[in-house]
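Tokens as discussed.
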């Protein structure tokens, strides 16, 4: 029925050139004509009784041929990929090369090809933990600022003050100016809510006085449309307030109403919080460095459809699921001031990186035979059951059904396997034998199961041969 020529293309694409026998085409045309005869109401003929040449005259040979193709192509494609043992991972790209004979060129996206190389030798140095105490002091200072008192003062502006002003801003090249009355803000050097250099100009300015000054916006300013332009300000200083920070003592700690009653306990609590945050940040940064190394060292091919799917996922997430409907998607695009093509172009590098990282993890899972044990599944399920979102939910029956659903179990299993894969990457990159043993136990169990499976299959083949 079909002559098949196969050719491997870059990006894990398989090109199939399919030449369909004329007999199969004629059968499809006959079936399409018969369907039109049944459905058509043609004057002078009873329903379903119009002859073929009348049908062709009314609908045209091209329309009948197209209807025949609509039925024939899926069947030809399905049989061809099955005959060539191809496993598509997305929709094919189909191109009709000729109609007599019918020749179809199909580009099929297939499974990614990834070679990690000698990944057991890839090493990454673990980052040093930053000093915790300075960060604890910063946390305490933040608390003091949150509970500070603002006291009006009659003196020029200093760093750390809070001011209330009226201002007008005119940007070079723009026709309209911006104005605001009673704008209140803190004059801190780390404050980045205003144009660079604006706060510096406020220092030493006095209350109840008006000032005019110009600043030059830096060339590397984050908003390119404003970069390297002049900004002219007209400012009236209406109020200056001094920030009075509370003393850090037991009384201040009790006023926080956090359940902590003295400075020492507060410092210990902040120390633990900062430590956990640092460890989490360090782990994330370390894992990112590891996966980037594995990606850089690997050779991989994958179809663009994987990146397109990831872009769709990112858009769905960024738009808060507005992309589920055309109306919602268009409204979201309007709100961010971008076209669909601009959004996709923006997310392409992020999506590509995400796909490459996922492929590395998937290959590690495959090569290292990583899976979720029954024990780990039960352990993680019990953690979910102890979570407040589960225990505090009044609909216990619904929550139980959720936990026992196949979707939940599949999601939990994927999460456990992914975590084990990350542990394995860390073990490889650092040579940490403890982490290696954590995975190897699981690996041996699977290896044993695979051996048993192969043994059973071998016995079945021998029995079949004897028969």
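Sequence:
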């Amino acid at each position: 029925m079909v002559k098949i020529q196969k050719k491997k293309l870059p990006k894990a694409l398989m090109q199939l050139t399919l030449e369909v026998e004329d007999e199969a085409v004629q059968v499809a045309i006959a079936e399409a004509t018969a369907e039109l005869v049944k459905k058509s109401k043609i004057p002078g003929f009873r329903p379903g009784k119009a002859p073929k040449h009348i049908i062709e005259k009314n609908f045209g040979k091209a329309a009948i041929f197209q209807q025949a193709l609509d039925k024939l192509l899926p069947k030809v494609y399905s049989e061809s990929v099955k005959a060539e043992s191809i496993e598509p991972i997305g929709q094919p790209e189909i191109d009709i090369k000729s109609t007599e004979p019918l020749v179809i060129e199909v580009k099929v996206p297939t499974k990614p090809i990834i070679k990690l190389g000698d990944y057991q030798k890839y090493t990454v140095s673990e980052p040093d933990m930053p000093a915790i105490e300075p960060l604890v002091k910063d946390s305490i200072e933040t608390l003091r600022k949150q509970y500070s008192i603002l006291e009006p003062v009659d003196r020029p502006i200093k760093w750390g003050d809070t001011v209330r002003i009226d201002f007008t801003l005119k940007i070079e090249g723009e026709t309209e100016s911006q104005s605001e009355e009673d704008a209140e803000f803190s004059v801190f050097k780390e404050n980045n809510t205003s144009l660079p250099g604006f706060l510096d100009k406020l220092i030493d300015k006095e209350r109840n006085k008006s000032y005019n000054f110009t600043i030059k916006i830096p060339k590397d300013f984050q908003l390119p449309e404003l970069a390297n332009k002049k900004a002219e300000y007209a400012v009236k200083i209406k109020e200056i307030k001094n920030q009075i920070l509370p003393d850090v003592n037991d009384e201040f700690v009790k006023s926080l109403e956090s359940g902590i009653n003295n400075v020492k306990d507060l410092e210990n609590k902040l120390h633990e919080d900062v430590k956990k945050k640092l460890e989490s940040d360090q782990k994330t940064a370390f894992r990112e460095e590891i996966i980037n190394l594995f990606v850089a060292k690997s050779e991989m091919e994958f179809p663009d459809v994987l990146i397109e799917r990831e872009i769709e996922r990112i858009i769905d997430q960024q738009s808060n699921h507005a992309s589920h409907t055309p109306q919602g998607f268009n409204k979201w695009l309007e709100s961010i001031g971008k076209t669909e093509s601009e959004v996709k172009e923006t997310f392409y590098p992020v999506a590509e990186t995400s796909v490459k990282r996922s492929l590395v993890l998937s290959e590690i899972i495959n090569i290292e035979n990583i899976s979720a044990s029954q024990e780990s599944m039960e352990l993680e399920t019990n953690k979910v059951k102890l979570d407040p979102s589960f225990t505090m939910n009044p609909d216990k029956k619904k929550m139980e059904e959720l936990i026992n659903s196949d979707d939940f179990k599949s999601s939990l299993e994927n999460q456990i396997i992914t975590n084990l894969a990350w542990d394995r990457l860390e073990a490889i990159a650092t040579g940490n034998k403890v982490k290696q043993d954590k995975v190897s136990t699981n690996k041996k169990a699977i290896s044993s199961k695979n051996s048993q499976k192969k043994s059973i299959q071998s016995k079945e083949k021998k029995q079949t041969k004897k028969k």
